C-alpha cells in the first residue's frame, strides 16, 4: 500500500467465486489454480477491486467475464512472475561450451553467408532471460562475423511486458550477471538513476517483445533454433501442458533445442523428442519435418 492510501479490507471470497476464477484462468491461460491458492487470489485481486470500487468478488468476476480488457488485467494480476539473469546456469554453460562453438564451426566450413539465429523466450517475465540470452549470443556470435540474432520474448502479462521493454533493472541484480557481460552490455545509471542499470542499445535491438498466450499460441510465426520455456509449464495441468508442448514443438526447427525448467520434463509428453541433457531436448531424426 502506498503512503496516503486508505486501508482496504477485501470482501470474502466464496468457494463458488473461487471456482469461477479458477475456471476462467484455466480456460484463458491453461493455468490451473489449486484450492490452496484461494488466499493468493484474494491478495492479488484486492487492489483491482479497490480501484474499481467493486463491492464483491462475484461482481468483479462477472465484469471480467464480459469485458475483454478487464479479463487481461485479471490474468496480469493472477500470473506469477519470478525470474533472474542467467537463471539455471547450466543451460547457459551448455550453450557456451557446446552449442555456439558447433554453430561457429559449421559456419566456418559452410558457404560463409550470414547465419540468422532465431530464439523464442516463452514466459519471459520482466526480461532477464531474453537479455541473458542476448548477451551470450552477441558475445559468441558477433555481428562483425555476419551473425544476425533475433530474439522473440513473449509473456501473457501486458503489464510485465511493458516493464520488460524498458530493459531497465535494479542495480542490485548486477551480481547475477557474469562480470565480462556486465561490463560489455549493461549501462549503470547516474544521479537519480544510480539504483538502476539498463541494457545497451545493441542488446535492446536484438530483443522484441510480444504478448502470447501459450494456451492458444497465436502470434508466433516461423521456427526457432532455440526455445526457452522454463518454469512455465509447472503451472499447467497434464492436458494443457501437453497442448503447450505441442505448440512449442511446432515452432522448433528440425535441429533446434527446447529448454525447460529444472522441475519440468517431457516424460509422457515427448515421444517426438530426445534428451540432449536433463531438461534440454531436440527432435528425433525420424520425426523432424
UniProtKB/TrEMBL annotation:
Alphabetic keyword roster: Methyltransferase, S-adenosyl-L-methionine, Transferase
Membrane-spanning parts: none
InterPro entries: Bact_Chemotaxis_MeTrfase, Chemotaxis_MeTrfase_CheR, CheR_C, CheR_MeTrfase, CheR_N, CheR_N_sf, SAM-dependent_MTases_sf
Database matches in SMART domains: MeTrc
Alphabetized CDD domains for the sequence: AdoMet_MTases
Domain CheR-type methyltransferase stretches: 6-286
Listed EC numbers: 2.1.1.80
Reaction equations catalysed: L-glutamyl-[protein] + S-adenosyl-L-methionine = [protein]-L-glutamate 5-O-methyl ester + S-adenosyl-L-homocysteine
Any one GO MF annotation of this record: protein-glutamate O-methyltransferase activity
GO biological process: methylation
Pfam families hit by this protein: CheR (PF01739), CheR_N (PF03705)
Protein name (database record): protein-glutamate O-methyltransferase
Amino acid at each position: 500500500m502506498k503512503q496516503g492510501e486508505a486501508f482496504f479490507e477485501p470482501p470474502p471470497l466464496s468457494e463458488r467465486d473461487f471456482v469461477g476464477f479458477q475456471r476462467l484462468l484455466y480456460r484463458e491461460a491453461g493455468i490451473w489454480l489449486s484450492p490452496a491458492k484461494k488466499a493468493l487470489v484474494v491478495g492479488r485481486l484486492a487492489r483491482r477491486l479497490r480501484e474499481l470500487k467493486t463491492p464483491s468478488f462475484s461482481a468483479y468476476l462477472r465484469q471480467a467475464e464480459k469485458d475483454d480488457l478487464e479479463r487481461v488485467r485479471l490474468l496480469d494480476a493472477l500470473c506469477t512472475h519470478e525470474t533472474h539473469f542467467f537463471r539455471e546456469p547450466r543451460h547457459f554453460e551448455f550453450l557456451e561450451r557446446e552449442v555456439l562453438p558447433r554453430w561457429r564451426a559449421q559456419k566456418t566450413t559452410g558457404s560463409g553467408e550470414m547465419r540468422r539465429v532465431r530464439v523464442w523466450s516463452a514466459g519471459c517475465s520482466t526480461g532477464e532471460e531474453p537479455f541473458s540470452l542476448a548477451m551470450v549470443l552477441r558475445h559468441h556470435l558477433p555481428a562483425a562475423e555476419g551473425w544476425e540474432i533475433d530474439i522473440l520474448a513473449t509473456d501473457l502479462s501486458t503489464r510485465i511486458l511493458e516493464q520488460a521493454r524498458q530493459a531497465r533493472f535494479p542495480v542490485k541484480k548486477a551480481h547475477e550477471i557474469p562480470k565480462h557481460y556486465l561490463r560489455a552490455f549493461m549501462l549503470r545509471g547516474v544521479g537519480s538513476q544510480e539504483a538502476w542499470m539498463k541494457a545497451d542499445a545493441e542488446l535492446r535491438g536484438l530483443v522484441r517483445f510480444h504478448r502470447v498466450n501459450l494456451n492458444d499460441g497465436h502470434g508466433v510465426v516461423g521456427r526457432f533454433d532455440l526455445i526457452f520455456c522454463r518454469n512455465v509449464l509447472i503451472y499447467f495441468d497434464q492436458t494443457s501442458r501437453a497442448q503447450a508442448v505441442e505448440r512449442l514443438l511446432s515452432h522448433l526447427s528440425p535441429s533446434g533445442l527446447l529448454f525447460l525448467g529444472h522441475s519440468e520434463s517431457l516424460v509422457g509428453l515427448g515421444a517426438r523428442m530426445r534428451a540432449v541433457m536433463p531438461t534440454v531436448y531436440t527432435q528425433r531424426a525420424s520425426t523432424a519435418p
